Amino acid sequence: MLIIFSGMILGSGLIGSEASLYAADGAAHPEGAPLQWKTDLALWSFIVFIVFVIVLKSVAWGPLIKALDERELRVVTAIEEAESKQKESEELVKEHTRKIESAQDEIQAMMVEARSDADRIRQDILEQARNEAESIKAHAIDEIDRARELALKDLFDQMNGRVVDATEHVLGRALNESDRERLIEEALSQISSSSN
């Protein structure tokens, strides 16, 4: 920057010295655009431009290019990371999709197995209920048969007692054991023949 300012001061000094030349000669300023070639002014302008380019290159362009290169590297790195993350996320999405499909297949298999288990359990319960009903029915029939046999036995015992009592009353004497058995057998045979 110091060089730029010194170049500007030097250039203005040259222009000022030229103006004083015109004033010293008593000549008037030339009118219009300055179209004449001035070697000293061109030389100093060229020197100032070269110094300006050198200063810019060392002070501004170097750090600017370095900063741009670093920024470009960061952008490229960020793009590569983003692409890598995108590929990674796509792989994760594919993996999760496969897991979801696998879980759905597993759920379907579990549902089929649960239905088959439910059908099997239902059949087992129905079979067990049938068996229990048959068992209860058989037990009830056995109880009814026992109750009927007991009732018939009781009836026969009462009938035996009455037949013996009636016979003893009619005969007017007590019957012995063989007479009683004969009378009971006759009465039973008559009852069984009449029930058939």
Describe this entry's structure for a reader.
- By secondary structure, this protein is an all-alpha fold.
- The chain has a domain at 42-147.
- Helix content is 90%, strand content 0%.
- It contains 3 helices and no strands.
- Helix 2 (39-171) packs across helix 3.
- The radius of gyration is 67 Å and the shape is rod-shaped.
In short:
By secondary structure, this protein is an all-alpha fold. The chain is built from three helices and no strands.
Radius of gyration: 67 Å
What is the rounded distance between the termini? 146 Å
Helix content: over 70%
Quote the beta fraction.
Answer: under 5%
Subcellular location: Cell membrane; Endomembrane system
Membrane topology: Single-pass membrane protein
Protein name: ATP synthase subunit b
Keywords: ATP synthesis, Cell membrane, CF(0), Coiled coil, Hydrogen ion transport, Ion transport, Membrane, Transmembrane, Transmembrane helix, Transport
